[in-house]
Amino acid sequence: MKNLVIDCNVFISSFIGSDTCFRVLEKAFLDYRVCYSDATLKELLETLKRPKFQHLRKAKRIEMTLQVLHSLGAFFTPKPYNIILPDPDDRIYLDLAITANAEYIITGNKKHFPEKLCEGIKILSPREFLK
Fold first, then answer.
1. Among 86, 119, 84, 82, which Cα is nearest to 5's?
2. Are 96 and 102 contacting, i.e. CB atoms less than 8 angstroms apart?
3. What is the reported pTM?
4. For the chain, what is the largest distance between any 2 Cα atoms, rounded to a whole number of angstroms?
5. Strand runs (DSSP E) across the chain, as ranges?
């Protein structure tokens, strides 16, 4: 089974109702091993604490997704590769993907992951991943 990494923005978009991002999560958990780390999980949980997402805090979709992530996902402790990305906060995803030997990073912000810096990991938008 191939590994992939999902950016926080895809999870959040799924939680707020994006059918495309929800389908990404379904496909990812069925056909791939979704990799996560302490840092990526922390970013997701911290993002959900923001006031604009307060209405989501008790959503069953979030609880179920986190349970699936813990039961079917693969936890890694990434090595820091110190690659400088346009958004330094996204380095946690690239470090994880390199450590996990992931095939893909699925993100809504492809421009934050320039191809020449990504060590051969394919960067896909949610729609590209579904095709």
1. 119
2. yes
3. 0.94
4. 40
5. 3-6, 33-36, 74-75, 104-106, 122-124
Domains within the chain, CATH numbers bracketed: 3-130 (3.40.50.1010)
User: Any idea what DSSP says for residue 77?
Assistant: -
35: nearest Cα among 90, 75, 81: 75
Q: What is the pLDDT of residues 53-87, one digit of tens each?
A: 988 767 788 999 999 999 999 999 999 999 999 99
User: Residue 63: what residue type?
Assistant: E
What's the CA gap between 114 and 37, in Å, rounded? 22
Residue (of 20, 19, 15) closest to 52 by Cα position: 15
Gyration radius of the chain's alpha carbons: 14
Q: Does residue 79 sit in helix, strand or coil?
A: coil
Integer Cα distance of 71 and 34 in angstroms: 10
